[in-house]
Amino acid sequence: MGQVVTIDGPAASGKSSVSRDLARRLGWRWVSTGAFYRGLAYVARQMNVDLDDARRLGELAHSKEWEVLLDPERTSVLFRGQDVTQHIFAEDVGGIASKISHYPEVREALLGAQRACAEGPDGLVAEGRDCGTVVFPGAPAKIYLTASSESRAARRAAEEGADPNSIIEAQKVRDQQDSTRKNAPLSVPKEALVLDTSTLNLDQVVDQVEAFARRQLKL
Ligand code: DC
């Protein structure tokens, strides 16, 4: 297993952009673990699976018909050979992902596939909610990004061309769900670098994160 840097934080805190750029700078692979939950959420909805049926969702998550592809630009999710990635980043799919991510059956089913992303010669930058606490607890460099709810909503609204006021409410619900759940709640890993990104631009955040990662990893 190669070295791992983890970046966790709430919705739209900048995890994806920061971790993607960090991976590029280090010449490492990158995975967005949210894509696993989002892919499952989208496919479950398409298949009319009851979103309260944890056992059925766990079975679906365990299916051998999933494929997750890591490339420097995005984490792609395929089910039965169909690439569903373009559908999974909408805020409503994020809401379903947050709901179904509570079920231990779902988390346990996805954990192995997430850990497998670290196999291989290069290092891995992994972002999500529990990458530093549960998926890669032994990672030598852990980062936790945070930002005000206003700046997070503005960021997501700009990405989606949506109204920030409607996004702020949806994110509030999601943050509450993600940080109060019993299984692997969103929390700050011990020894993590905690960075508030509200008033920083992307390069400023990546500079600080890269310096920290290089120090921790002795690169
Ligand atoms: O990071 P994201 O917005 O793509 O994640 C979507 C949802 O997936 C998030 O609200 C909770 C869940 N998730 C999780 O429980 N654990 C992770 N490591 C990543 C995402």
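^ 2'-deoxycytidine-5'-monophosphate complex. The first helix runs from residue 15 to 26. Residues 147 and 197 are 5 Å apart (CA to CA).
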